Amino acid sequence: MRQQRFPEPWPPDIAGEDSLELLDRAYQGLTEEFAARAPGAPAVTWYEPEQTVGFWIRRMAQETVMHRVDAELAVAGEVSEIPEELAVDGIDEVLERFLVYGSHRWTEDFAPVLPERDQPPVLVATDGYGWLVRATPDGATIDIATPRTTAPASVCGDPVPLLLWLWRRADDGVEVEGDQGIIDELRALLCAATQ
């Protein structure tokens, strides 16, 4: 944000730093940068349609949630509360930016799991929100839907379990119905998107 370019070298050399001290230092530096800029201020990002500080605020919120989940699952086997609004935003982010944008921007990374022909859509839905996700040979597409939209397959649930399902952190708490083949294709695409 400060230099309007990606950091070099990346990743930075953090050898020899204490993990907790590094976390504290990085968190302080990041929050200071966010506080010094408006969300609409320019910032270089990997998502070409949005080159703003707001992109990084959203991305860091979602990244922090998923890494917290990883730590909790590793240590205690259960996940502490995630606000539903944050989970819905995370669902939208992983589908729109990681899956759809990523599969078109970095097609070579997705090529092994892209279908040979357009596939029927999978409805991904939660409390008042719905997304129709379709796998095509050129990448994934998405259409906004309602939770009542019909599709040959669906993955539905409350926001938090659905977010965890999409990020492949948990399989319980969602209803998976319909054509298992296209659901499996969606999971394969999500795996490529979130590695």
Keywords:
195 residues; alpha+beta; Nonspecific Lipid-transfer Protein, Chain A; 2 domains; 6 helices; 5 strands; 15% strand
CATH topology of the largest domain: Nonspecific Lipid-transfer Protein, Chain A
What is the arithmetic mean of pLDDT?
95
Oligomer: single chain
Query: How many helical stretches?
Result: 6
Shape: globular
Structural class: alpha+beta
Q: Please provide the ordered H/E string of secondary-structure elements.
A: HHHHEEEEHEH
Unreliable runs: none
Keywords: Isomerase
Protein name: Maleylpyruvate isomerase family mycothiol-dependent enzyme
Domain Mycothiol-dependent maleylpyruvate isomerase metal-binding: 15-71
Domain MDMPI C-terminal: 85-181
Notes on the protein architecture:
This is Maleylpyruvate isomerase family mycothiol-dependent enzyme. Keywords: Isomerase. One of its GO terms (molecular function) is isomerase activity. The two termini are 25 Å apart. Helix 3 runs parallel beside helix 5 (159-166) and helix 3 packs across helix 6 (180-193). A 5-stranded mixed β-sheet has the order 3-2-1-4-5, with helices on one face. It folds into 2 domains: 1-80, no CATH class; 84-195, Nonspecific Lipid-transfer Protein, Chain A. With 195 residues, it is α+β, with helices and mostly antiparallel strands. The chain has helices at residues 19-35, 53-75, 84-105, 107-110, 159-166, 180-193; strands at residues 122-126, 129-136, 139-145, 153-157, 174-178.
